[in-house]
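Lab notes, practical 5.
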Amino acid sequence: MPVYQKESHLRSIIKGLTWRIVASLTILLITYEVSGEMDLALKVTGIEFVVKLTLYYLHERAWQQIPRGRIRQLFKGTI
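Output from the prediction step:
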C-alpha cells in the first residue's frame, strides 16, 4: 500500500499566516486608498485576516485527505 507524505498542522498554519500577511497588507492599502480612512482600513483588514486564515487552514486540511495527485514516499527498508 502506498504511503503519502503529509504536511503537519503547524506547517499549514505557518503557510497560512505568511500568505495572510501579504494578502492583508494588500487589502489594507486598497481599502485605505479607496476610503481615505485608516480606521476603516484596519477594521476591514482585521476581519478579513481572521476569516480568510481560518478558511485557508480548513481548505488545506481538507486537501490533505485526498491522496490523488500526491507523490508517494516509501519508508526505508520497504520494497
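Observations recorded by the TA: The first helix runs from residue 9 to 35. Residues 20-64 form one domain.
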